[in-house]
Amino acid sequence: MTAVLAMIWANSPLAGFYEKIFDTHITIGFGKFSLTEPLKLWINDGLMAVFFFAVGLEIKRELIIGELNSVRKAALPVAGALGGMLLPALIFIALNWNGDNIRGWAIPTATDIAFAMGVMRLLGSRIPRSAVVFLTALAIVDDIGAVLIIALVYTSKLNLSTLAIGMLITALLLALNRFRVSALHVYFIGGIILWFAFFKSGIHPTVAGVLLGLLIPVRHRKHHRESPLHRAEKALLPWVSFFIMPVFALANAGIKTDLQLLRDIITQPLAIGIAVGLFAGKQLGITLFSFVSVKLKLASLPKGVGWKHIYGTAIVGGIGFTMSLFVADLALGGSADLSLAKLSIIVGSLLSGLVGAGYILITGRSTADLKEVAVD
User: Fold this and answer.
1) Any idea what the CATH number is for the domain that residue 64 is in?
2) Is 210 within 8 Å of 56 (Cβ atoms)?
3) How many helices (H) and strands (E) are present in the chain, helices listed first?
4) How confident is the model at residue 284 (pLDDT cuts 50, 70, 90)?
5) Which is nearest to 248 in space by CA: 317, 316, 328?
6) What's 44's DSSP letter?
7) Burial of residue 223 (number of CB atoms within 10 Å: 0-12, 13-18, 19+)
8) Entry pTM
9) Could you read off the pLDDT of 336-358 as tens digits, one per residue?
10) What is the tally of structural domains in the chain?
C-alpha cells in the first residue's frame, strides 16, 4: 500500500515535497559521535538495520531449532535457494555483460519473505503447510546469501581501525552469549555501537543488524518463560511489519514514471534482466535445483508435497520487493537508471505474486484431500 502511495506521490504536483522530505538532513548523536545524513539514508541504513536484526533472529532460530537445523531438513530449501539465486543472476549478467549496470547482478536474486508469506497465507488450504514451510526456509537461506553479497560485494573501502572496534564489540557480544546473559538491553547497546563502527568502517551497517541477531541467545534460563531470541522477535515483529517495511517502501518506491521509462522497461537490458530474473529465473532455478537434489537423493520432498506445489511456491519466490529494492539502491545508487531498476523490481514481483497465486488457486487442493506422498 505504501509503495503505491509513494508512486502516486512522486508523480503528483507534490513530488517536490516528496523529494524534499527524504533529502532532509538529520543529525543523531553529539560531537565526534554524531552523524548527519539525509532522512532516506537513516531509513535505508538505520531502520533497515533493525529489519536485518529481525532477519538475523529468524536465521538463528531456523538454524538452531527450525527447518535448517539438520542436513536432511535443510537440503531441499538450500538447493532451491541456490538455484533461485544463481539462475536470476546469470540471466541478468547475460543481458548486461558489456553494460555499465553489471554491478546490479544481485538485484533479482532476492526473495522477499514477508510479501511471499503474505501471498501464501491468503491462499490458505490451497497449498500444503509443508510447502509453506519449504518456502519460508528457502527465503531464509536466500536472506543468508543476500547478507553475504551485501558484505562482500557492496562494501566500500575499509577503515581497519573502526572495523577492529566492530570486531571487538562482536567478540564481547559473543562472550555475553556464552555466559548466557539474557538482558536484551545489553545486546541492544552493543548493537548500536556495532552499527556505528560498521558504518564508519565501510562495511554496510545492516550487516551489524544480522550479526547482532545471530548473537542473541536462543536458550532461556529456567526462571524465564521465553528465550531472549523469542522475546526480541515478539517485540520486533509489529515494528518491522507495520512501521519499518512501510516506511522503507514509502522512501524507496517513489518512482517518477513517464512514457520513456515505460518504454525502457520492455527494451532496456537492465529492466529485462531484473524483471525476467525475478519472474522466470526464480521459478526455474528453484524448481530445477530442487528437482536435481531429489533425483540425486540429496534431499526429499516433504510429506504431502508434490512437484506442482514446489513449482507454485517457486513462482511466488520471485517476489523480491524489499530486499531487491535495498540491493538496487546499493548497486545503482546515484545512477540515472535506479528508477528503471526499481520499476522493474515492482513489475517482476507483481508478476510473480499474481501468477504464483493464480497457479496455486487453479492447481491446488485442500490439504485434507492431498494424496501425494514424499518422494525419497
Assistant:
1) 1.20.1530.10
2) yes
3) 18, 2
4) very high
5) 328
6) I
7) exposed
8) 0.85
9) 899 999 999 999 999 999 999 99
10) 1
